[in-house]
Protein 1
Amino acid sequence: MASIGVKATEITSDPLCKSLPAVKASHSVVFYDPNLSQAFATSSVLSVGYAVDHVGPLFAAALK
């Protein structure tokens, strides 16, 4: 989840978010890096490249 307009900790501490099966199983990704969140929000030619380069390890960890 991209923390756009809110802090990442607000997402991870939200009871509704915590109740999701994927979150309970540790298969969720929250972007704590504001640059990465902004890259997903912007969707420009440069930001998409940045996002793709940085999300791989985060997604891989969530899929384990």
Note: Helices lie at 8-12, 15-19, 21-24, 34-42, 45-63.
Protein 2
Amino acid sequence: MLYNKLLLVGLLSTSFLLADKFDIVKELENNAFIKAQDINLEPIQKNIDKEKFNDSISEIYKSALKNVDIESRRIHGEKVELKNFTMENGLKIQKEINLKDFILNNRIYIFMSESVPFDIWHTYGKLIHNKKLINTSMVLRGCIGGNCSKIAPTAEFVLKIKQYDKNNEINPNIIIDPLLFRKYNITQAPCVVFAQNTQTKDLTISEGNDKNFNAQEIFKSCGDWSFIWHLKEIQKKANSTQLEQIINYLEPKGSL
């Protein structure tokens, strides 16, 4: 029932984009967003707090984050198009950018929280954005404020990260996925996880689902350190030629 409500809001928003007059679209968008904020996801949050997950959890959060992304774009003054209502999957982007096989066969997760200072969020996000590391995601366990009953705080949080440097707006991949936190036993932030030689059955399903995603090797580094420092610590154990190349690429004046 909860998922149906979210889907209904998404469908209503999509239909609004087909209107001819932009001012009418804006008014209808505002009404739809107000309705979305009233959706009560507190029962879902209680399950998260009690570690009672199911396969639909990540889909619900994906829908919520999609609304967050749309709203942050709208607040920024961007004319939202129909394509903004479809979450882009990795493969579509990978056709545009290719950092050898590293992008296709490996994943990097940066586990974050709202308590991590914005300058750290921005430093990590800027590097991901500038170097086009599309296999790297910054992961939140849930919505900002402890639950998703209100979308606005999460939209504002994401927008603040994107616009932290007013002269250089960034757009890192930020996702909400409590399944990933459980999968990798994340108890603090920041934490960086390198999943090596990965296989994914369905890109539309959370990679925190063991039946959907697996990796040959998993390496983790936690602490308030730079992204490159974490990768170097991981490389000490991984001894990966590809990861070594990526580290060189990320460092100043580095290249593949």
Note: DSSP finds eleven helices and five strands in the chain.
